[in-house]
Amino acid sequence: MTKIIDGKAISQEIKDELKAQVAELKEQGVEITLAVIQVGNDPASSVYVRNKKNACAYIGIQSLAYELPEETTEQELIDLLEKLNKDDTVNGILVQLPLPGHINEDRVLDTIVPAKDVDGFHPQNVGALCIGKPGHVSCTPAGVIQLLKRSGIEIAGKECVVIGRSNIVGKPMSLLLLRENGTVTIAHSRTADLAQVTKRADILIVAVGRPKMITAEYVKDGAVVIDVGIHRNAEGKLCGDVDFDSVAPKCSAITPVPGGVGPMTIAMLMHNCVRTVMK
Fold first, then answer.
1. Is residue 125 one of the residues assigned to a domain?
2. Please, which residues have CB within 8 angstroms of residue 28's CB and are 6 or more apart in sequence?
C-alpha cells in the first residue's frame, strides 16, 4: 500500500511548534519581524506573498509588506534592502521572485545580509551549507528533509537521486541529503539514459520543471518519490513533475501535487525566521 505523504499536515505540525516557540519568545520580550518585498503584481507572486503573510500571522511573526510598482529601479530596490539591513527591528528579509526583467536578481539577493536572508539564497549561506557551517538553508530542500524525517523515512545509507541542478532546489537538496548520510546522485537534462540512473534510487527527488515527465519506467519498486514540481495542465489543474497516477502504485511513499512539498516551503521559511533570534 503506497503511503501518501501529507505535506499539509506536516507543515501544520511545524507551524504549531513554531507558534509555541514564538509565544515563549514574546514572553521574554523578543519580537520577530519579516520584511516581504514584491515588485510588480504578478498573480502567482501575489498568492505566494499572501500565503507567507498568513503564515506569519498564524505563528505570531510581524510582517512588513513592501509592494513596489513594476517600474521600480534596481537601485531603488537595493536602497530599500540596505535600509532594512540596518534596521535592528527587522529580523528577516524576503524578496519575492521572479523580479521584473530590468532588475538583476543576483545583485539584489547578494545585497541582503546573510543573517537576514531567510530564503537561504545568499552565496554566504549556500557556502556555509557546502562546508557544514551554520546558516539559513533554502526553504524547499529543507522542507523535503522534514517531509522524509517526519514520515519515518530513513535517509542514511540510501541511494538518493535528485533530478534537477538549480541553485534553489537541486544543488542544496543534494547537499542536505549528503548531510543526512545519503548516497547522492545529481541527474539533469543532459544525463545519459536518465531512467537507468533514477531506477537505482531508494529516494527520488524530482525538480526537473517539466509536467508529468517522470513516469513509472523511471521508478523502481518500493522507492520513495518526492515531487517538487508544480504546473497547471491544459484543464487548469495543478500537477507536478511526476505522473502521479502511473508512479504511485510502484512507490512505498510519494508526495502529491498539490499538498506535498508546497506547504513545506512556507513552513521552513517561518522556521528560518524564528532561527534569526535563537542563540
1. no
2. none
pTM of the model: 0.95
Q: 28 catalytic, yes or no?
A: no
CATH number at residue 49: 3.40.50.10860
Domain that holds residue 255: 139-263
Q: Which of 6, 15, 116, 119 is catalytic?
A: 119
Active site residue 52: yes
Q: Given 15, 52, 158, 212, which residue is catalytic? A: 52
The grid coordinates of residue 267 equal 513552513
Give residue-wise pLDDT tens across range 123-142.
Answer: 999 999 999 999 999 999 99
255 close to 265: Cβ distance less than 8 angstroms: no
CA nearest 196: which of 208, 207, 210, 185? 185
Same domain as 169, residue 252 = yes
| 160-213 confidence digits (pLDDT tens) | 999 999 999 999 999 999 999 999 999 998 999 999 999 999 999 999 999 999
Residue 16 lies in a domain: no
- Per the structure, the count of domains in the chain is 2
Letter for the amino acid at 219?
Answer: V
Are residues 143 and 255 part of one domain? yes
- Which residue of the set 15, 96, 171, 241 is catalytic? 96
